[in-house]
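#struct-pred
JK: can someone run the complex with 6-O-phosphono-beta-D-fructofuranose? inputs below
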Amino acid sequence: MPVVGVLTAGGDCPGLNAAIRAVVTRITAEPGGEVVGVLNGWEGLMEGSVRSLTREDVRGILGRGGTILGTSRRDPYLHGRGLADLLPTITAAHIDHLVVIGGDGSLRTAARLADEGLPVVGIPKTIDNDIAGTDYSFGFDTALQVVSDAIDRLTTTAEAHHRIIVLEVMGRTTGWIATYGGIAGGAEAILVPEEPYDLSELAARIRRRHESGRTYSIVVVAEGVPDPSGTETLAGVDAYGFARLGGVATKIGPALERLTGYETRVTILGHLQRGGTPTAFDRVLATRMGLAAAEQVLAGASGVMVGLRGSIITTIGLREGCAEPRPVPASLLADARWFFA
Ligand code: F6P
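RT: done, C-alpha cells with the ligand placed:
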C-alpha cells in the first residue's frame, strides 16, 4: 500500500480542506494506507516540512476555508533544482505517490515531475476557474457568491446616489469571475481580458441608460484587463517574484466619470473572494475530486489530473489539462450583453 503525500500549492481557495479530507479518508480506508501532509506547498518538500495525516486529523475541516497544510507560491523549478530538491524529503518520508492540489502553475510543475518519474496525480483548484482540464474548479462558486452579494449591496447605494460603481474582481488571464458574477448580480457592463473594450462606447451606453431614467450603473472589471491606455495594472511583485495584479478599476473609474459626467466610485474586492467557508457546491466538488484522485493513486496512475466534465468526474493527462488557460466562451459573453443597457 503506497504512502501518499498531499500538498496544496499556489493561491488558496475555499474547498482545499474538503479535498484534503477526501484524499485522507479514502487512502486511510485501505489496509496500511498512509497519508503524509506536506506543509506550505512545494516549499515543504524542498525543506522537509511534513506531518502525518490520519482520518482523525481531517475531521471537522470540510467547511473550513484556507488549507490546514498551508500554501505558498514557491516552485521547485523556478526557485530550485527541481526534482533533485524534493527527493531528500520524499525519501525520508517514504512518499511513494504525490497528490498535488494546485492551479495551472502548480499542475504544470506536477506534470514536469511526473515526466521525470515521480508518481503524481493532480487536483485542479482555483477561484479563477481557468484550468483547461475541468469545466469547474472548486473555489470558483464560493468566489462567485461573494461577487454576487457584493453587487447586490453596491447596487442599492449606487441607485441611492445616482452613481456609477466600478467593481474590480480577480481573474488574471480570464474573466470567469467577472462574467458569472456580473450575470448573477445584473451588472450593466462586464470587462474581461478575453475581449477588448471601448471606454467611449461604454460611456455613451451608460449616458443613454441614465438619461432614460436608470440613473445608476454597475461595471464589473476583471483585474487582468488592460487599463484605458492598454497597459496591465501591476500592484507589485510577491515574495516569490511573481507579478501581482490589481488596481485597474482605479484607472477605469475616473476615466468613466470624466467621459460620462456621472459621479463614480470604485470597489476592489481582492482577497475577500478567496477567504471563508466554501459553498455546498464547492464542498461537494472538492470531495468528489479528492476521492477520484485517491482512486487514481490506488490504481497506480501518474501524470493525470481529475476534472469535472458536465456532471461526471473524469481524468485527463496533466500536460493537456493545464496547457492553456481556458477562456470564457464568446457565447457566454454574448448572453451577458442582452442585459447591458
Ligand atoms: O490565481 C488565483 C488568484 O486569486 C488570482 O486571481 C490573483 O491575481 C492572485 O491569485 C492573487 O494572489 P495573491 O494571493 O498572491 O495576492
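RT: quick notes.
The chain has a mean pLDDT of 97.
DSSP finds eleven helices and 13 strands in the chain.
JK: thanks, will look after standup
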